[in-house]
Amino acid sequence: MNLSEKSGPGLRERVGTSLFSHVAGPSGAQNRARIHGAPGPRWFGPERPIRTVHGDASMFIGGLSALLLQSLHPRAMAAVAGHSGFRGDPWGRLQRTSTFLAFTTYGTAEDAQRAVDHVREVHERIRGVTPSGEPYHAADPHLLCWVHVAEVDSFLRAHQRFGAGPLDGAGCDAYIADAARVARALGVPDPPLDRTALAARLALYRPELRATSQARDAARFVLHEPPLPRAARGPYAVLASNAVRLLPPWARALLDLRTAPYLPEGVVRLSGRVLTGTIRWAMAALPPREETAAPR
């Protein structure tokens, strides 16, 4: 056995554990054990596309791209800027979001509903006025639907580009339908159920979207000012470049984002594949998940 074989597993485990702790937070191990070990029916069985998409390393790029896209709705962005703590506690916000996704995607039906109920309670309390004077309420079904479609579109784009096993057409539609179940539970009355409906719904929101000062400030923060140690800045820059390139061209234009314009599209995309492959390799060192419960 050579030196790299001796040191490789230790490095892999350290990187995987570090990534998991940043994304899942201090209660990550406890939540993981409950999500995958608690008995009971699930909203989604092991064969469902939502598990394939949400369990892949491509979510690191898709999640950041979703934040950028969501920021283009002034009322949604004002709610985030005023109440989410994304600047003062960005890791906490990431951890809360990833925990919600994990419970609703993999957890028992009871725990998934409990996670949804908590988010709905929080949304109900979030009200305010945008800098331009528009009132907003986080529980507004119209805003909830925008956040949902921007997220689903970004997650699916990332998976199809960087996922270990991209879905076929039927799988993409099934993923959108799976995600719609969570959206309805959160208060979205009529979420899209397939790619055609998703594209049409995104197009309906286009007239409402613009890059406010809050949106541009959020983009600068998440792309150029992340609270990371120096050693992590390089990999994060790769993630950020690919998150920007993943956006629809009209969204990049609105935010005036030209991340790594001197690099060809193919080079940026290759860097994203290498990065997600490395994350996938590292996360595979975590203890295996055990789940025996059947879906509802």
UniProtKB/TrEMBL annotation:
Keywords: Oxidoreductase. Its EC number is 1.-.-.-. GO terms for molecular function: oxidoreductase activity. Residues 22-43 are annotated as: Disordered. It comes from the Bacteria. It is an enzyme of class 1 (oxidoreductase). Pfam families: MPAB_Lcp_cat (PF09995). Residues 52-280 form the ER-bound oxygenase mpaB/mpaB'/Rubber oxygenase catalytic domain. This is Oxygenase MpaB family protein. The lineage of its organism: Bacteria, Bacillati, Actinomycetota, Actinomycetes, Kitasatosporales.
